[in-house]
Amino acid sequence: MDFRLTSEQTQFRDSVLKFSQKELSEGALKRAHDPGYPWDVAKKMAKQGLLGITIAEADGGQGGTLMDAVLAIETVASVCPRSADVIQAGNFGPIRVLAEYGAAHHKPHLKKLLSGEAVISVGMTEPEAGSAVTDLTTKATRDGKGWRVTGSKIFTTHSAYADLILTYVRFGPGVGGIGSVLIEAKDVRRGRKSHFMSGEEWAELHFDNVFVPEEMVLLGEGGFKKQIAGFNVERIGNAARSLALGRYAFEQARAWALERKQFGRALAEFQGLQWKFADMKLKLEAAQLLLYKAAASADRGLPSPEDTALAKLACNQAGFDAANESLQVMGATGYSQETLVEYCLRRCRGWMIAGGSVEILKNRIAEGVFGRSFSQRGDN
Ligand SMILES: Cc1cc2nc3c(=O)[nH]c(=O)nc-3n(C[C@H](O)[C@H](O)[C@H](O)COP(=O)(O)OP(=O)(O)OC[C@H]3O[C@@H](n4cnc5c(N)ncnc54)[C@H](O)[C@@H]3O)c2cc1C
């Protein structure tokens, strides 16, 4: 067993760092507070080969590994936390599901996404189906050579401006009746707009009897299991950003503790604060190992459900704790929008809910512990 990165991985990480320092360092604070999508960053990343890292070269990607994509998201976040979202959108999210399961006629959509000119959302959550995602009611009904889709989605990341929505729909009853279709933004009615605590915009998405041709079905009836296997990649991106933003805050607080003096001494001299750093370091390093284990052992780029749940839980918790304690170490400066520490805290808080909340992850881990599933519906 070797815990060191290979020389190729180190080289790749160094090249991403160089790119990030040159292209993304300036304006990192402003970017975090801009509500829209950083399209300029997306185009630069497309040119640099940072979108589609794990997607096959034949499909316009780089043919790399999930571990490469994790290194890229962490490295970008260490320079510009907000820009890490572009790595997420271009590698870990629904784009990955589209690349994995899409047919040849879906590839033109992929090409546009990889160019950094378009972005895709995943619409799973509905007003009455959050953690209980299989309760979704958005319905696809047969209509000639396609389907009519009716329903609504909420809390969808990028929904205010996405070009394409990978929409979970119900073709029939039960979990087996769930699949997914691709719906273009022009066919979606955007309703009420809102913002997460992170500042990210989202809009209600309404499908009012939208006609979806057969070729826009990504996974038909019985596709739910595959969708979730692809979604585990999204969860790894969520975990990696949690960890990276916690680490970003930690580094800011470390530098602050060396500079800032109170009672005639640097903050770093106070044992009460030193122990905070020791605790943060332990949590960040432990979570990092679980993240790398999940990514490095991913079978054909798809991580196992249990490794993913452990990594996401550890990274969500470590990232949030590190950002929270770092803010405390920095006092009112950490709580102000002059640094990105408060931003890191707000983002890390959201990732404890998004993509499978920490409670739902614990349910998944407990199933592994006891070697059986536990129905959450009280019908065990
Ligand atoms: C920043 C952010 C981005 C998001 N992006 C997207 C997106 O792109 N696409 C999309 O479809 N959705 C997205 N979501 C929605 C997200 O998937 C849901 O918020 C999540 O699944 C939880 O659903 P809910 O908010 O309805 O909470 P609920 O399901 O109502 O849960 C409320 C609380 O109860 C807990 N809980 C529920 N069931 C159980 C149980 N069985 N055991 C223990 N605890 C339980 C939950 O963990 C939570 O703490 C996003 C959310 C956030 C915060």
General description of the model:
By secondary structure, this protein is an alpha+beta fold. Helix content is 49%, strand content 15%. The protein has 13 helices and 10 strands. It has helices spanning 7-23, 28-33, 39-48, 66-79, 84-92, 94-101, 107-114, 224-259, 271-296, 305-329, 331-335, 341-351, 358-370; strands at residues 120-123, 139-143, 146-153, 164-170, 178-184, 189-195, 201-213, 217-219, 261-262, 265-266. The strands form 3 sheets. A 4-stranded mixed β-sheet has the order 1-4-5-8, covered by helices on one side. A 4-stranded antiparallel β-sheet has the order 2-3-7-6, with no helix packed on it. Strand 6 and strand 7 (201-213) form a beta hairpin. Helix 4 (66-79) runs parallel beside helix 8, helix 9 packs antiparallel against helix 10 (305-329) and helix 10 (305-329) packs across helix 13 (358-370). The chain starts with 6 loop residues before the first helix and ends in a 10-residue tail after the last helix. 48% of the residues are buried. The structure holds flavin-adenine dinucleotide. Flavin-adenine dinucleotide binds at residues 121-125, 130-131, 155-157, 196, 350, 353-354, 357, 359-360, 363, 376.
